[in-house]
Amino acid sequence: xxxxxxxxxxxxxxxxxxxxxxxxxxxxxxxxxxxxxxxxxxxxxxxxxxxxxxxxxxxxxxxxxxxxxxxxxxxxxxxxxxxxxxxxxxxxxxxxxxxxxxxxxxxxxxxxxxxxxxxxxxxxxxxxxxxxxxxxxxxxxxxxxxxxxxxxxxxxxxxxxxxxxxxxxxxxxxxxxxxxxxxxxxxxxxxxxxxxxxxxxxxxxxxxxxxxxxxxxxxxxxxxxxxxxxxxxxxxxxxxxxxxxxxxxxxxxxxxxxxxxxxxxxxxxxxxxxxxxxxxxxxxxxxxxxxxxxxx
Length: 296
Known about the structure:
By secondary structure, the chain is an alpha+beta fold. It is about 40% helix and about 25% strand. The chain has two domains: about 15-115; about 125-285, Thrombin, subunit H, CATH 2.40.10.340.
């Protein structure tokens, strides 16, 4: 039986020795590089041989940077798209509001000009309700009533023409029956020729029932109020002739009319007093002056 004894092995290249060897080699290479051109050539060849390894080792880093920048750019574009979409929606809403305000301002300016042209006793009102069916109803509600001097029978116009007539007057509001209502009949005349006739409302439209074929009537003719009644002042646009044809077996035209006023679109209207009411208002102003002038 033999006993085996193991002795610890001593390694020459300890970390300290490795450091010394590498330092000596570095100094030796520096000296050789400064004094011998062959070392420089060797460095070039070594760099050429090692370049593919360097190129391959850099690719993962470049790929990571590329992917990272791609995600950052995508996040930026998504956030910018959200911001621009929100900004675009806000600007569209503001544009619509400005457009509506401009339209309302235009209506008010036109109504103010009508008042300056001799309708000083008229009343400006705002449409506050269009009934249960805004597109089919023949009635509107305005925010002026008997407190503002609005009475039943007064005519109502917008910036484009005749809208209808006051049929109910409350203290703070009034009801308008549009010219397309079944009970509305309007004395009119053709602006181009002066021929007088009647326009009837009904079924949401206007009709010219008894216009003789021997009279002159053409498309695009405008029908104005003739002023033959005490309700509608003379010269207000009522409708435009869109189409004319002869009814077989009758001496009257078959006419298609389009209302001049924006019956379901106008927000502001002008209430015109009836002739008797206007005369009464004028007499209240004139009588005191006349009595004063006759006083001794």
